[in-house]
Amino acid sequence: MEQKQTSVVKTPRNSDGAQRSSYRQSYRSYVGAVSRLGLTSALTARRLNTSRRAPRAHNITDKVSPEHLAVLVKKEWQLSYVTPLFQFRHTQLKRYSQQLSAFIAAERQGVAVEVEEPQHSFKASFSVVHGMAEAEEDAETILIQVHSKHHFSRRDDPEKCVWSGWLACINGSPEYIRSLPKDFICLPLFGSSGGDPLTSSVKSWFQQTFDCCFGSLEINHTSLQWLGSLWTNCQPESNIQHLKMIWAVPVVPPLQITYTVNPQDAWELWTCVRKDAQVEKEGEEEEEEEEEGIIDIEEVNMFMQELKSHFYRHFKLDLSAGNLVQVSTALGSAKTSGRIKISNSRYMISTLTLLTECALLKMPV
Amino acid sequence: MGDTPRRLLQRLIRRIPAQELKPTLEKWGRLSQAQLQTIDFTQSKWALTGKLGTICEERNWAVKHITELELIYNAHTVELLQFKEQFKSNLSELIRNVSVKIKKHTDEAVWIRIAWGDGLSQPNHFKPTYVVHYLQTPYVFVTSLNSKQKPLLSQALVLATSYHAIKDANLSGRKFTAIRDLLMRQYEQVFPRKFHSPLKERNQIVTDPHIEREQAESSANRLQMACEAFGGGKLPQLQSAVYKLETKFRGHNKSMTQREEPIRCVVKFASTNILESLRNCASSGIASTPVTPLLSSIPLKGRNYFVITDNGPGPSQTRQQN
């Protein structure tokens, strides 16, 4: 049961200060709704963050081991959301590895297979990626790899990694996590890279063992716009090399428009837009919070609108008539089909934070 | 007159189109004026053949005379031979170990296949360059040419065709026939009309007399302007168009618009047939009509790579982009 709904509400252009606190309100009402069973109207109360922290360069190489980073970075992952896992223990990883290897072998051969048998041609291994969890409630990221070994290869031949995947929860909503019943672990974001048969085997095993549900995570255009803006925000620290956006226009035959902006020019436009937005905000005497490093959705929308206006003045073509399908910079790329690539580990945490939020929103539970 | 020359004559007369028959015979010069006048060129070809046959017999012509007539008819074949010779010799002068094969197609196109080698190695037949030239036109179509080979080929072509110079047309695509049709405008052109009459929609929905389309006129106008810009009917299949923009910012943000330096960006349109996609954009309203000159230049100027600066479209530069 896959409901494709945009549980994202675009904040209207002339926003007032009340919008900023709508995030807290919406989550409070959501948590209240969870306790009322079967109330699907809770979905309308959940919203994507209307403001988020500007990505800081994390010295993640200090915290995460380079081998793990090498696996995660520069590969394109297909994303899914996962409902909370029942009785998943970070201490039982070795047992899970054996069970998953046996499961994969059984699926392939079509017969029951002994768990302890060491001769499986596919060997799964679970490991914990320490150092990625940000918030207190975040569970540690789990990395799953499947290596294959031919029957006829010698013992010392290196095994080839034919499939990898990970489960993560980065800065997941604390209220949601705390609201989960005991024994449930929240790892809502799942990324996989490898052949489809293995992906479905791994998912089946998880579904059987932990009573969870997988679903495809499409990245909608608001999240893509967020990623584009957040990455552009990093320009002074790390050169993004270009801001590339791809739109699909629904004509016959379908037209694809790739709009690539010079990074320095994109950065300047972004700062101008932010400056104007800050001036507007200061005009309203609202809470005097420290606004350093907070980006609002109005700024993101304005940034994209300006880029589209520049385009329109030249081509008289309204890009809003199309769908934004991909955003990419040197820091990474994201496609609406749910494929993500993180090319620079420094901003991995911020990207994964946003994606964790998307996964939590998309979950039907 | 023997059988062969008669048959040759028959075949030749069949080949030569009717309107060209008289000028060709005149150019041939072997028939006297009086004789030419006696021939009634409005007769059927069969009758003409008979008449000419009798004249041939009277004059006792042999095969070589008939072949002379054939050659004159193929006047441009001589031109082709000239082109072939010159091109081959030019290219061979410029680079040794190059294998050139020239063939003429029926539709006036000369196809050249070049396998490049250098002083040390034999020509590489696995990566040949193909060149197509329409002799009566100033266009040359090239594929698979790298930057080192390009000046050599250009020079050989210029010398062989006795033009002054050769320059990039900034047009590239995957289908040769499409590019050719675009350049030579071999597709349905739609011209602006003084009295706007609604064009028939291509996908005619069943017309129910009780259904009235509110915006019929404006959508007909859009369709008309879209077809004027891009053409009607089936359009040549161009796969992409690239615009390199270096213009001042044209959005709404005040501080950005006051900036002196231009914004640099690259826009690429891609589709299985971008001309049809763009026409559809214009007719459906996604692109405002009248169609902006940036887009209508694709068919108008026969280009799909543009550099746009604030001083107007930049000069066609350097290398094409695919």
Rg for CA atoms of chain B: 28 Å
- Anisotropy-based shape of chain A: elongated
By CATH, the topology of the largest domain in chain B is: Ubiquitin-like (UB roll)
Number of strands of chain B: 8
Radius of gyration of chain A: 22 Å
Going across the major beta sheet of chain B, what is the strand order?
1-2-3-4
- Element pattern of chain B in H and E: HHHHHHEEEEHHHEHEHHEE
The end-to-end distance of chain B, rounded to whole angstroms, is 60 Å
Classify the helix fraction of chain B into a percent range.
40-55%
Strand content of chain B: 5-15%
Total count of helical runs of at least 4 residues of chain B? 12
Structure classification of chain B = alpha+beta
Whole-number mean pLDDT of chain A = 81
Family (chain B): Belongs to the CENP-N/CHL4 family.
InterPro entries (chain B): CENP-NAC/CAD_complex, Chl4/mis15/CENP-N
Subcellular location (chain B): Chromosome, Centromere; Nucleus
Protein name (chain B): Centromere protein N
Report what the structure shows.
The complex is a heterodimer of chains A (365) and B (322). Helix content of chain A is 37%, strand content 22%. By secondary structure, chain A is α+β, with helices and mostly antiparallel strands. In chain A, the strands form three sheets. In chain A, strands 2, 4, 5, 6, 8, 9, 10, 11, 13, 14 and 15 form an eleven-stranded antiparallel sheet that branches. In chain A, strands 1-12 form a two-stranded antiparallel ribbon. A two-stranded antiparallel ribbon of chain A has the order 3-7. In chain A, a hairpin with a 3-residue loop joins strand 14 and strand 15 (339-342). In chain A, helix 5 crosses helix 7 (196-210) and helix 9 packs across helix 10 (297-315). Chain A is elongated. Mean pLDDT of chain A is 81; it is low at 1-7 and 13-45. Mean pLDDT of chain B is 77; it is low at 314-322. Chain B is built from twelve helices and eight strands. A four-stranded antiparallel sheet of chain B has the order 1-2-3-4, covered by helices on one side. In chain B, a hairpin with a 5-residue loop joins strand 3 and strand 4 (140-143). The radius of gyration of chain B is 28 Å and the shape is flat. Chain B has three domains: 3-61, no CATH class; 79-167; 209-320, Ubiquitin-like (UB roll) (Roll), CATH 3.10.20.720. Chain B is of the alpha+beta class. In chain B, helix 6 packs antiparallel against helix 7. The A-B interface holds A 249, 251-262, 265, 268-269, 272-273, 275-276, 302, 305-307, 309-311, 313-318, 321-322 and B 243, 245, 247, 249-256, 259, 263-274, 276-278, 280-281, 284, 286-288, 291-292, 294-295, 308. Chain B: This is Centromere protein N. Chain B: InterPro entries: CENP-NAC/CAD_complex, Chl4/mis15/CENP-N. Chain B: It is found in: Chromosome, Centromere; Nucleus. Chain B: Belongs to the CENP-N/CHL4 family. Chain B: Its main location: nucleus.
